[in-house]
Design a protein that fits this description.
Number of helices of chain A: 12
Shape of chain A: globular
CATH topology of the largest domain in chain A: Rossmann fold
Oligomer: homotrimer
CATH architecture of the largest domain in chain A: 3-Layer(aba) Sandwich
Number of strands of chain A: 9
Number of domains of chain A: 2
Distance between the termini of chain A: 39 Å
Structural class of chain A: alpha/beta
CATH superfamily of the largest domain in chain A: Aspartate/ornithine carbamoyltransferase
Strand content of chain A: 5-15%
CATH class of the largest domain in chain A: Alpha Beta
Order of helices and strands of chain A: HEHEHHEHEHEHEEHEHHEHH
Largest sheet of chain A: 5 strands, parallel
Chain lengths: 333, 333, 333
């Protein structure tokens, strides 16, 4: 179920990031630079948000084939606070069958001088496909692609861990729950391994584990207690009810008991361990409210970092592209 | 059916308005100051609208659990003309059951550094509930709450009356129609009483009257002729067909005949009387087109004042909060 | 099926354009001026889009009673890049029956100080009707009206032809396909005739031809080969499946074979002929991908010109109105 499509496609001829399709293939330094720039954009609650003219005059289009209000608003605010004009297109199921191909929609918006496409889709492959067809000055940001990739979420997770726990080399991170269907788990795991995390664990029922050949070096744990023991960071994932059947877990209560992050299960973790969740949370299913709202929770910090990370990615990509345009003095019709 | 939840909650420790949940508990001077600031923002047709940087750098989120294009656009333009960034979220029925609680949605947007939540809901209680949970620098504006409260509508109504008829002490105001289900009637009546209106009348069938203990001092009239006689201001309310059954009024024609504001019924009012309606109007039901479009009508003036009042409320609340932040030098994660 | 409603209505007392409802009645010079200004706003891919403060402080409302994401975004970006505030209202079928008349919606938005209404509707008549009721400083732009008119599309088509093929006097333009139901064909034909096109041809099955009295001087061709022979510009139109039945064309394949713009059928045209399509294209129905994506295609150039034309129309109309306001020193409530 893993794909590395996009790994090379996302760079220009000089090796600079031009799209963000996946975290696979990014060097440690590239990720660190993105995190550092994101950190620069982070503000405390009560402060005004960071602003920057990096995208002044640019146009960002949010193309969500799978609806997601929270991620759309996060990208919208990131782009707006960088000075971009933003257009939102809700393109759910209906539009795709209306007779215009996705590529024609892209070409149309590109001709209207959209510079950046932020795309989310429940099927794999669309961001890389579009990236392979747009003009050289146009960028594609993957905002969630099936079970495959959600690179900005991966970045915001490692940023949050870095803020709370410091250097990743000394940390044990446990990703818990429905990993097999999770784009978040894949992108965060990639970021963690690239940054040299001390130990990475996948903690799940066998039926919800990642593929056997994914993430060499990560440890797999078939019980929550084993998985959490000694962890410094626990990342819970959203479980969907229809997945429970597949995993032979009879119901929500059974899932919480066996795999839920609770005040009881977290006792196995290291002292000061923190809990992440990509949201939206199923309270009482994969996480209890006591944990979600308690001192170990980094959930809101993740969301805040999400805007900062998206600002950093937008600013970086647009700067890379802009430089190339100016250097080349290119003009195309 | 009356609630005063929110009355105290909407002030900070120093007694300044931090949310606007209800007009109950606002002092006469506070309302006058809001009206004066709104008046400052009013422009004539053909002029450019008033602009002000009071919300520069701020982010306003419109959260409408009950759809209302006109009110959403009014708040959106008010915030935009004050320099804010605005995000719109349509959160109707579907989103509420999607597994994320309303509070998690709020926390998520708050973490994205939304400063002001503009909320509308068909159930009572949400704005006060949210106001009780947001961070100290975050404000909630009630944009319509069940039958309970619609404070900016109350303010725009009294502003309109003040512009057209002057001092409220000398005026007789008749609110006509389905009062029991009307948040507009409640907020406007509160504002009128706080400002010391000369006489306030509720004119409706018994089944659509406010509760017996609401608005002491107001007069209740069980016939339109009695209610309108001697009135300087007549405020018609939208009646919904399903309410007519409850009120033993057989149909639209009967309602118009018995309770409608028409060229005939308005003859009982004082000379120069004006007619208000919160919109959207059911022409030919609670009001005729001759009245709605005639010289007595203040309907469009109300709409124009609506943007100005929302600008005044936003600017006031953000200024109050901002001052406190600066004084406290507070920093929280 | 032709209507000239709006022809006179769209000018102010001094004869200046105040609305854009139709291209009928526009003088050659007026169209040329709009095209010249649009050309001024055109930028090449990779450049930043043109910006201009012509609409600073103004508010544009997109009122789409018929959904169209691409046209809505084109107007939204045009207005935004001129400095306007933009509000989008999706008013499809549901809103129209909600009890508020269209005119009340317009009056409400006008009272909120909306300066320009961009309107699309599947029924004829609404733009002119609204233009006849708004205040003197308010403008209506027709963004697509039933089969009747789509003036900005007509302008962008002739701008595209001018850019690619030069002076229209020397050109033969063939409009091909479902002309009878096409607002695009009507507006483009009007623009072409006003600008003195060398030859204008309507190429279609008899059942899809324009009315007999429409566009005197244009030639009608009942076969594609006859219609394309010697043409410099071929404009394909979107055909809807339900129209095929009416035209006794059994299916998509038959339509493509008999009326489609293909690598084979285009061989009859003059050397260097270009192909236009208003989009969205039915690839493999009225046009093949080989043509749509080939060197003859001007499809994306049309889209790019679309934003520039809409900027030109907005800037022109607002300037005309603004001047009048200032001269008259008018104040109305």
């Amino acid at each position: 179920m893993k794909t590395d499509t996009g790994r090379d496609l996302q760079r220009d001829h000089a090796g600079r990031l031009r799209h963000l399709l996946t975290l696979e293939g990014l060097a440690r330094d590239e990720i660190v630079q993105l995190l550092d720039l994101a950190q620069f954009y982070v503000r405390e609650p009560g402060d005004l948000p960071a602003r920057d003219g990096a995208l002044l005059g640019r146009t960002v289009a949010n193309l969500f084939f799978e609806p997601s209000t929270r991620t759309r608003v996060s990208f919208e605010l990131a782009a707006t606070r960088l000075g971009a004009d933003v257009v939102n297109l809700d393109l759910h199921s209906s539009s795709r069958v209306k007779g215009e191909t996705v590529l024609d929609t892209i070409y149309t918006l590109q001709a209207m001088m959209v510079d950046v496409f932020v795309m989310r889709d429940s099927e794999p492959g669309l961001p890389a496909f579009v990236a392979g067809h747009v003009q050289p000055h146009v960028s594609v940001l993957n905002a969630g692609e099936a079970h495959v990739s959600h690179p900005t979420q991966g970045l915001l997770d490692v940023l949050t861990i870095r803020q709370r726990k410091g250097d990743l080399q000394n940390l044990c991170v446990a990703i818990v729950g429905d990993i097999s269907h999770s784009r978040v788990a894949r992108s965060t795991a990639t970021a963690l391994q690239t940054l040299g995390v001390g130990e990475l664990r996948f903690v799940s029922p066998a039926s919800l584990a990642p593929e056997a050949d994914e993430f060499p070096g990560a440890k797999r744990c078939a019980s929550l207690e084993d998985g959490i023991r000694g962890a410094d960071v626990i990342m819970a994932l959203r479980i969907q009810k229809e997945r429970m059947d597949q995993s032979q877990i009879p119901d929500v209560d059974a899932f919480l008991k066996e795999w839920g992050i609770t005040e009881r299960s977290i006792l196995h973790a290291n002292k000061g361990a923190i809990v992440l969740h990509p949201g939206p949370m199923n309270r009482g299913v994969e996480i209890t409210s006591a944990i979600a709202d308690g001192p170990a929770s980094a959930v809101q910090q993740q969301v805040r970092n999400g805007v900062a990370v998206r600002m950093a990615v937008l600013a970086t990509i647009v700067r890379n592209v802009q430089v190339r345009n100016v250097q080349a003095g290119r003009r195309e019709v």
